[in-house]
Amino acid sequence: MRLESVLTCPLCGFAWQETMPTDTCVFFAECPGCHARLRPRPGDCCVFCSYGSVPCPPVQLRSNGPHEAGGPAG
């Protein structure tokens, strides 16, 4: 599972790296470039799924399955 993601602001294009938490969804993020408050796009669970280079850990688990995400082999 990847925990580092690069968020890109849809307003100014500024990109910055963030570490994603494994135990919660991040609903808001502030762009360090323009200070806009980012929220998920409709249908996305968090800002990482909307604006990140890597989706959040729960989405990674659903996409990869437990074995590839570091869980026990089936």
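Above is the first protein from milestone M3; the second protein from the same milestone is given next.
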Amino acid sequence: MTTTPRELPGTTPAPALDGLTGSTDRAALAAQPVGYWTWVANKAVIRHIQSAMARTDVTQPQWWTLNHVAGAPDGLTREEVGDRLRPFIELGRELTDNAVDHLLARGWLVSGADGRLRLTEAGREAKSRTKDLVTRLRSEIHEGITDEEYAATLTVLQRMIVNVGGIDGTGPRGGPAVKTTLR
């Protein structure tokens, strides 16, 4: 299926996705709408990751939860999990609670008398399997892209985020400096 964006006034129409690779026309690329291409990249990458994880019956919020709980020597409370995942999950605390509930039901997490969540042995095994999958997915996504190209892309995107006011709507164009750490 070929996907093209709507033509916006003052922009050059984006080429079909199937004609995108290998383009060397820098002027044509520079005229492309960044909002469209970041949206397409986001959708494609997230779809790729979620599809692969679904085949192993793990969701991204479950993976993030396993990863964060594993990294906390004393475990985490539900609230702490929610606080740590807030930058990744826009849908609110319900999604975090749902991930915790599923991991508890699967026996991958246990909640101690202190209310702190910790990984079980099965949870550590699931985390290890999922980490292997995430590493493979990262390799697939980065295929043909050097570390320098990737770093340059992130640098430009981060600069654009700051230019338009940052993640939380504050920054050079809308108020005080950006307080959110970009990763």
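Note on the second protein: Helices lie at 26-30, 34-54, 60-70, 78-85, 93-105, 121-141, 147-163.
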